[in-house]
Amino acid sequence: MVTQSGKPVPDAARRSEKSRRAIYEAALALVAEAGYPKTTIEGIAARAGVGKQTIYRWWGSKADVLLEAFLDLSEQAAEAAGQVPYAIPDTGDLAADLKAVLRATVDELLDPRFEAPSRALAAEGLVNEQLAREFVAKLLEPQLQLYVDRLRSAQDAGDVRADVDPRIALELFVSPLAQRWLQHTGPISYEYTDTVVDYALHGLAPRS
Amino acid sequence: MVTQSGKPVPDAARRSEKSRRAIYEAALALVAEAGYPKTTIEGIAARAGVGKQTIYRWWGSKADVLLEAFLDLSEQAAEAAGQVPYAIPDTGDLAADLKAVLRATVDELLDPRFEAPSRALAAEGLVNEQLAREFVAKLLEPQLQLYVDRLRSAQDAGDVRADVDPRIALELFVSPLAQRWLQHTGPISYEYTDTVVDYALHGLAPRS
Amino acid sequence: MVTQSGKPVPDAARRSEKSRRAIYEAALALVAEAGYPKTTIEGIAARAGVGKQTIYRWWGSKADVLLEAFLDLSEQAAEAAGQVPYAIPDTGDLAADLKAVLRATVDELLDPRFEAPSRALAAEGLVNEQLAREFVAKLLEPQLQLYVDRLRSAQDAGDVRADVDPRIALELFVSPLAQRWLQHTGPISYEYTDTVVDYALHGLAPRS
Amino acid sequence: MVTQSGKPVPDAARRSEKSRRAIYEAALALVAEAGYPKTTIEGIAARAGVGKQTIYRWWGSKADVLLEAFLDLSEQAAEAAGQVPYAIPDTGDLAADLKAVLRATVDELLDPRFEAPSRALAAEGLVNEQLAREFVAKLLEPQLQLYVDRLRSAQDAGDVRADVDPRIALELFVSPLAQRWLQHTGPISYEYTDTVVDYALHGLAPRS
DNA sequence: CCCTAATCGAGACGGTACGTCCTGTCTTGTC
DNA sequence: GACAAGACAGGACGTACCGTCTCGATTAGGG
């Protein structure tokens, strides 16, 4: 079978699982060690002990490789932590729950295993909208959906105003952290995220 | 004269102004037309009618060139709009002032002349911390400082709680917009920024 | 069964005749259409509707394939012309007989069906002595032997000096034609070969 | 300036003589050591300590490189032997002069420095007519012209029939040697070339 | 106002990586 | 067990840029 692009579609059933895993590991290792711009397809192939064509057969670019490798890594990490299926805890104390989750996010953002590849993917996504859409759809949006769910529950409990749109509301505590991390606009810490949660829940204006 | 690095320091007094302008224009045009990754130093030099060495003499990388070109562009645009010195309006109505400023920001983020280079610089900054620091110091932080000033004024007027840290508070309405734009996590519009301002000022929790 | 080389010896009895013929035809067609260097094993396999391994199983290189294909072609052509067994005519007029045979050779050298593969094999033979030996033994030497026979007969008839070595003598009229064709050192025509035969039989020096 | 092909014409005045020499040497060495098919442009570039682009800038293929390298080698060898300008000796004894020259040719054909590249070029020429024309025009034809001159002189002296075409006549002694060497159809030796000269000058038919 | 030294346009250079093509081997499933 | 199909590790292809370098030809500023 051949697609419109003229490229033959490779037979996924005969794909080498060993090569795929080796490519994931090589890509993540190189991005962590040398940085994304110095990570090359040739370098990944060499480190994985794989022909370049094996990469080009299954992926369209190094960004695609890294995205899949990172998704795989995230999945493995989630499984290892027994977090599948995952949800934001619901102890009844919304502020405490959000603070806990954001503290975990801070930990992850500072984990060097995750930092290099996710920065790289974010950077690529800035300039490559196609990749960004996939990144958001497969990784970011599912996570944000958890906040939506928790906020809905909080609305049911009367802890959040009913007229608030949870999809927008969640950005009040998630985006500040994201921007500080992405753009180096400030340090990130537990204290910082706790403060953001407090401001977001109760607003800046004084109580009347 | 020669620095410790061994590189001779070029004599800025004899620098060709014409070449510099041509390089700025070429860099911005190429980033807009072909995208940042396909913009090359050779391409900039060719388009500017300039030798490659003239670029390497004055800048260290294509990111440096683009950063300067973009700073220059921003300056020109600000001058043209008579916005120097600039401040957030202070009508006494904090919510209205913030909404107005954010609407202007939405306009700018959607202006194609600005979008391509600023996305490119943001992307480079994700992976190149040195550049990010410069980008933040020269462009982002001065803008954020305006919010700090306006919030301080609001605190004096009693429109914002005195115990709120303005540098963190501003992120409640700035970062959501930034993240949506940077990561394509959602559409950006006047309605959206207005909503964010309302949520941020009054919080998500119901008034007691 | 397995040889010392470790390669299993394929069972010739189970060989697919259809595939072999298809490979011959594909190889000859590709060499004629695209030229020898652009003819690849993959291309032959694809055109023949055959797996690559089927070629590697029975031949050692594309030169081997082409040699066999060409031998097959020559055999078929000879059979079609009813020229088996073949000999140089012996009308008693040596000069006339040689001229006739060389005119036939000129025709063959200019036949496009033969030109491309035989040039290719000759070229390969220049650099690959093993193939050259096989090419000479299976194709060239048998043809040259016909000249030896005819010259021996001429010696018996007193038309050629008895002390002449026929194996060397034949090269006087065969080699000039061969070189002109191989190296493009001059045009080849009936007139040319006739002249060469005259010169060779009677020498360049004036009769004393 | 740009040619019809669209390729910019490089500025020959700024060409690196050192690189050119290094490329010649690398090409000749690799052809001699590894053989023509295993000689690659990458290999030549690496051995010469040169970028690939420097080869592609000045030559169109490895055959072009080798042709120039071989022409250069031949020129140097001729200069070293004080053979410029060169001519076939004219002692008045045509047979002796021809035998002497052909013995020198035998020596050269067996000289390993010359054998590998000239075989390679001859092989390439078989399949690449463009290269063959250049090879013939620059190397072969000038040499053959020397035979034409010597034969003309012999005709003046009455040692060769006046109605003989020297351009064809020379092939009687040159081509047999060429074919034996090119196609491995027989051994080459002084005795062999001497015999060929005798046959060619006096013919195969008995004197009447 | 000229002289001289630095900048300039141009582009060749040694390299590195690109994405493609082919090699020769190996594996899978069909006949 | 030979076959069609094609994935695989490997390696060369020819191209595009990198950052350095070397050329004249301006082009300013200090003498």
Automatic annotation (TrEMBL), chains A, B, C, D:
PROSITE patterns given in the database record: HTH_TETR_2 (PS50977)
SUPFAM superfamilies membership: Homeodomain-like, Tetracyclin repressor-like, C-terminal domain
DNA-binding region boundaries: 40-59
Domain HTH tetR-type intervals: 17-77
Domain of life assignment: Bacteria
Residues in the signal sequence: none
A molecular function GO annotation: DNA-binding transcription factor activity
Keywords: DNA-binding, Transcription, Transcription regulation
Pfam families: TetR_C_11 (PF16859), TetR_N (PF00440)
Protein name, UniProt field: TetR family transcriptional regulator
